[in-house]
Specification:
FAD/NAD(P)-binding domain; eight-stranded mixed sheet; binds flavin-adenine dinucleotide
Amino acid sequence: MQIVDLAVIGAGAVGMTFAAAMRDKGFKIAILDDKANLCPPPQTAFDSRVFALTRASERIFESVGAWEFFERNSPFQSMEVWENDGHIQFFCDELGEPNLGYITELWVILRALAQTLQTSSDIKFFTNSKIAALKFQQNQYLITLDNGEELTANLVIGADGANSKVRELAGISLNSKEYHHHALVATVQTELPHQMTARQRFLGSSILAFLPLSESNSCSIVWSVPPTQAEELLNLSIEEFNQLLSTSFAHKLGEVSLISERFSFPLIKRHSMHYVKPHLALMGDAAHTIHPLAGQGMNLGLLDAASLAELLLQNRNRPLGDFQTLRRYERWRKTETSTMMTAMDGFRYLFGNDFLPLKTVRNWGLNLSNQNAFFKRVVMSHAMGLTGNLPILSRLSY
Ligand SMILES: Cc1cc2nc3c(=O)[nH]c(=O)nc-3n(C[C@H](O)[C@H](O)[C@H](O)COP(=O)(O)OP(=O)(O)OC[C@H]3O[C@@H](n4cnc5c(N)ncnc54)[C@H](O)[C@@H]3O)c2cc1C
């Protein structure tokens, strides 16, 4: 039987970031994951799982010592959002920033975090370890793995993703709602260079994003479409798909061709009724999932990790897992996530609606907003995690 202070279930980006923030502070930490290999390199030139990281996330990675291990990253300096007659563009110069964020592959993030944690003697990884049972006894949890191994921990962190077993075993209920959209992701080669610009086009019932990768003519695409369309897109021949993709993006980057497989998965909004119980906390996708429209899902999870670490370290005089501290975390992060979810729902409603007067107003609104430097600064500062109720780890300057 292993005895630890903290058991982090899930060695995804969020769980490992939390462990990195808590390392070398005198806690014994176990990180468990059901995968055998935590950060396999991609089979193709680029990982299809890429994320737009905000400045807040960059600072968190920097503060926990992981940023220096990022093997590659693609900073983007502008962002363009458009519908047929409406258009808005954001530039990093308008904010006095070197870029608006980074497009980063998942394997790069996971490998950097694993490298950061490797050096810490407080941390023990348990790979190939699926959590099977949780039992609360004498102010700690007894964790049983599916291979029969047991651990006890004063605080259990559920960072085990959207279908969290920790959430289920802790009996925390979930509000979930289908977006009735699937995300189709792939890597493409473009005829024209992306010029470090992230682009998104609203197409009525679908949203198509091209995210610039570290090679000037490579992009990752996220096409969120109704489920039947996702099926059709997956079944198109490569040539047909390339043609449709290039046209749907109005040949903004010229002819586009697939250089990876296409993957599609359903998009579901999930929000846990509670993020905490005594001696247990959820974070990242285990606590919430949102539409990838604004690329905020992982960024929210990283803020969860940094916020809980901050509160636990500030309240070291209280027992680890104490409910009062955990409730402060829940109130803080649930409020922030709910605000983001409401904003995403508003965007989706506004741009997913073909009602002509609404279409006219939003196109007019986009063009008008494009001329309003103050409005653009406010929107972008918030999206980049430069403003808001942020944890200390995300506020340090680099
Ligand atoms: C198409 C798409 C595009 C996106 N783009 C962006 C973006 O641009 N920017 C952004 O910020 N976010 C984005 N997101 C959201 C982002 O993918 C997630 O929010 C983020 O990956 C969640 O990280 P996590 O560590 O919480 O969970 P996960 O990455 O799911 O990690 C969970 C870990 O737990 C392990 N695990 C699961 N079950 C068990 C178990 N029973 N026992 C032990 N271990 C277990 C898993 O193996 C995994 O390693 C996007 C999402 C989608 C769908």
